[in-house]
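FAQ: What does a ligand-bound record look like?

Like this one, built around zinc ion:
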Amino acid sequence: MKKIYTASSLVEGTLLVDLLIDAGVPAVLFHSNAIGGLGELPVTYPEVWIKRNEDENKSQRVIHRFELSSSESMTKQNDLVCQQCLEENPASFKVCWKCASILPLT
Ligand SMILES: [Zn+2]
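The answer part, i.e. the structure of the complex:
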């Protein structure tokens, strides 16, 4: 067993574990509800552990891809610019929050 990643949220940790298992790397997610009995330090962030230490190189590649894809989706969310008033809108918006024009599809 080896800790390979500290996730910033339970959702992120769960996603990464799914990706690792898809890639053939047995992995588990630990968080404060799963470990940390009386007298132990609580785990504040979810931790991703691999079951076989020899999978470390493979899992690092999965993590690298995972971090790339999550930073890409973050920049994409600021991408929508209203054609009418040039205000920026989150990518999930269908109409401009400022002038209510229909936003272009990305
Ligand atoms: Zn607008």
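Follow-up question: can I read anything off the structure? Yes, for example: Residues 82, 84-85, 87, 96, 98-99, 101 surround zinc ion (CB under 6 Å).
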